[in-house]
Amino acid sequence: MPIISIIGRPNVGKSTLFNKIVGRKVSITEDTPGVTRDRIYQPATWLNYKFLLVDTGGLDLKDEDIFMSSIKAQIDIALETSDVVIFVVDGAEGVNPTDREISNFLRKTKTKVVLAVNKYDSKITKDNIYDFYELGLGEPIGISAEQGTGVGDLLDEAVDGLTPVDELEE
Ligand code: GDP
Question: What is the complex's ipTM, to 2 decimals?
Answer without folding.
Answer: 0.99
